[in-house]
Design goal:
The protein has 669 residues and is mainly alpha-helical. It has a domain at 2-68 and 90-215 and 357-561. Helix content is 71%, strand content 1%. Strands 1-2 form a two-stranded antiparallel ribbon. A hairpin with a 3-residue loop joins strand 1 (450-451) and strand 2 (455-456). Helix 6 (213-251) packs antiparallel against helix 9 (297-337). The protein is globular. Residues 618-634 have a biased composition (Polar residues).
């Protein structure tokens, strides 16, 4: 079992990252390199979170073994050993042999840093480039990242000059490595506290509001009004871009050198636009005969970039609109079924996707009613209380983790109590729950935030390549300072605990932060206290109110603009609901018509076929005879068809006049 736990977690985390990436990305349409790079970034970050508790339990066992095998007289000064324990140190079930974890952390950490600072920014520019060749895309990516890389070199140079000028330090490779790690962790910790302060309040509050049916329904109406505006804007933008593509396609003919670029652009357009533009390209024209002004390759690359963006945005808004409609219909069904006397959940519309028979067998309408109308609100309330308790503990520990005598951080108290009894299961569970909750608060904020239309993680395979790569960059930059913050909360970091004990393998690869004392003793300790102010600001929705004042409509219960958007969204949902009902009623009538008159239609069709065969044989034998003026069988078949059509098409009684005889319509003539 020494390495089984590590291997199982490595496999489990891989499938977890693959599942999340499949939910947000599109494996069929997006480039393979984008999928692989994003998967690797997500996988490494999730792996650090899941493996770190094993590192903590292994370190505690090594400290216990060192304390038992050593005595105060044998101490060499490198470690201050604890008093020998009277009980034997039991090896944890997840113990990882010596030498594995340092190599593992070194590979994972430096790979993630290479991804976030070098590869992923380059791939972002490469994915957004509108170039038509690999060389052109690489050139564009290098130019766009020149300022990006130059900024980081400037920051690293500032740290390097500070250490070089300070006479107390002698520049060595280990110290330069520590400076680079400190610079990366400082940037990550700055962003980490901002995201953590939002998640600690918003996650419990969202679950508490999830128990309010009226709140969720009103918010869904609000989202519908906003999404309809975005959907209309995306459709208008796509129409404008397609008009430009049409003009370019008509001006650049088949024998033009840039026609290959135009064909590449046309392949990225929706199918209906491709068919529409293809009808006007049947003529062949020599471009040298007329002196026309043709667009350059640079302008075509810009148009190519706009086409990719507009098509992706249009497709995303269409999918999100359908998902939001299903959500609104379901919430309205829940509101109706709450007062049901039969206690069976009744859906207004049937699910468009085929349901699993196993789930359908166990999740009956009665079970669905009890869960949706009775149990789910209480479950969300209890979960919100538990999450709020965790948030309070995190905020308290963030403000007091620097105190070692007495120990005020609650997470450090729990770990130290378990360390005395060497209860490794409790240690690993406590560490896992702590770092998992911190990760949920930070990562969920990354999934929720939206920077206009440049960065937006949309589920159901609607996230573009740029946003996927950007999320991988954020994860790789946030995870190392998140783990260091966790080790500081539990006093497993020697920089915080001020004890010269054996460090964890993860801390050992970071080097000694004493090289930059103002960061180790100042920024790392006091900056996390800012989370209190951020939590208060999030609780009172100060950021939402500021965005609302700037013109970005946000959901606020006491705002007149919010009420107007809710009413607008309610009307949109009602309109879509009537449209869906008419469609289902039409399908039901057609199904009943087919079941009732299906045999009659088949017999009529067979008689018509038999009559046509008789007519063809008669015409072959009497080819020289003149045709009769009227054909009895044809007239009979036509009358049958007319009668069927008249029965299928309902009369419009709302018309101004109804004529029994179709010839009366020509009486005026």
């Amino acid at each position: 079992m020494s390495g089984a736990a590590l291997g199982l977690e490595i496999v489990f985390v891989f499938f977890l990252a693959l599942f999340l990436l499949h939910r947000y990305g599109d494996f069929k349409k997006q480039h393979r390199l984008v999928i692989i790079a994003t998967l690797l970034a997500w996988y490494l970050c999730f792996l650090i979170v899941f493996i770190l508790p094993l590192d903590v339990s292994t370190t505690i066992y090594n400290r216990c073994k060192l304390a038992v095998n050593s005595s105060p007289a044998e101490s060499n000064g490198s470690y201050v050993t604890l008093a020998p324990s009277k009980q034997k140190c039991f090896k944890p079930w997840s113990y990882i042999p010596d030498g594995i974890m340092p190599i593992f952390w070194r590979v994972v950490y430096w790979t993630s840093q290479f991804l976030t600072w070098i590869l992923l920014p380059f791939m972002q520019s490469y994915a957004r480039s509108g170039g038509f060749s690999i060389t052109g895309k690489i050139k564009t990516a290098l130019i766009e990242n020149a300022i990006y890389y130059g900024t980081y070199l400037l920051i690293f140079g500032a740290f390097l000059i500070y250490v070089a000028v300070n006479p107390n330090f002698n520049l060595q490779w280990n110290q330069l490595q520590t400076i680079g790690i400190a610079a990366a962790n400082t940037w990550g910790l700055f962003l980490l506290v901002l995201l953590l302060g939002y998640g600690l309040v918003e996650i419990p509050r969202s679950h508490w509001n999830g128990a309010k049916r009226g709140y969720l329904l009103m918010k869904t109406y609000f989202k519908a009004a906003k999404l309809m505006t975005e959907k209309a804007d995306a459709e208008e933008n796509l129409e404008d871009i397609m008009e430009e593509v049409r003009k370019v396609s008509e001006s650049i003919k088949y024998n033009h050198p840039l026609r290959k670029c135009v064909d590449t652009i046309l392949k990225k357009c929706p199918t209906e636009y491709q068919e529409r533009m293809g009808r006007n390209m049947d003529d062949y024209e020599d471009f040298d005969e007329r002196q026309n002004s043709y667009p350059s390759e640079k302008s075509l690359a810009k148009l190519h970039k706009q086409v990719i963006y507009s098509v992706q945005r249009h497709r995303r808004t269409q999918v999100q609109w359908q998902i939001l409609l299903e959500q609104a219909f379901y919430l309205e069904d829940v509101a109706k079924n709450e007062s049901s006397a039969t206690r069976q959940f009744v859906h207004t519309f049937h699910s468009q996707e085929p349901e699993n028979k196993i789930i359908q067998y166990f999740y009956t309408p009665t079970v669905e009613w009890y869960w949706e109308c009775l149990l789910r609100p209480w479950f969300y309330r209890v979960l919100a209380v538990v999450l709020a308790t965790f948030s309070v503990v995190v905020v308290w520990s963030e403000c007091t983790f620097f105190s070692t005598k007495p120990v005020l951080s609650l997470f450090a108290v729990f770990i130290q109590l378990a360390e005395k009894t060497y209860n490794y299961i409790y240690i690993e569970m406590a560490c896992f729950l702590t770092i998992f909750f911190l990760s949920i608060c930070v990562y969920s904020t990354v999934f929720r935030i939206r920077v206009f239309n440049y960065y937006y993680l949309a589920s159901h395979h609607q996230t573009d390549a740029y946003s996927l790569l950007f999320s991988g960059m954020l994860f790789c930059r946030l995870t190392p300072p998140l783990c260091l913050n966790f080790l500081g909360l539990t006093h497993m970091d020697a920089t915080i605990s001020h004890k010269n004990t054996q460090p964890t393998a993860y801390t050992s690869i970071m080097g000694s932060m004493r090289v930059l004392s103002f960061i180790a003793d100042g920024f790392y300790i006091y900056y996390p206290m800012l989370v209190v102010i951020l939590c208060i600001a999030t609780y009172f929705s100060l950021g939402t109110r500021c965005l609302n004042l700037l013109g970005f409509q946000q959901f606020m219960g006491d705002s007149e603009m919010t009420s107007d958007l809710i009413d607008e969204g309610k009307e949109l949902i009602r309109r879509e609901k009537r449209k869906r009902q008419r469609q289902e009623e039409g399908e039901t009538r057609r199904r009943e018509w087919k079941e009732r008159y299906g045999n009659r239609d088949d017999s009529t069709r067979s008689r018509a076929v038999h009559t046509d065969q008789k007519e063809s044989s008669f015409s072959e034998t009497n080819a020289n005879r003149p045709l009769s003026k009227y054909t009895r069988s044809n007239g009979r078949t036509e009358r049958d068809r007319i009668e069927l059509l008249q029965d299928a098409e309902p009369l419009d009684f709302n018309a101004d006049s109804v004529n029994d005889d179709p010839l009366e319509s020509d009486s005026g003539r």
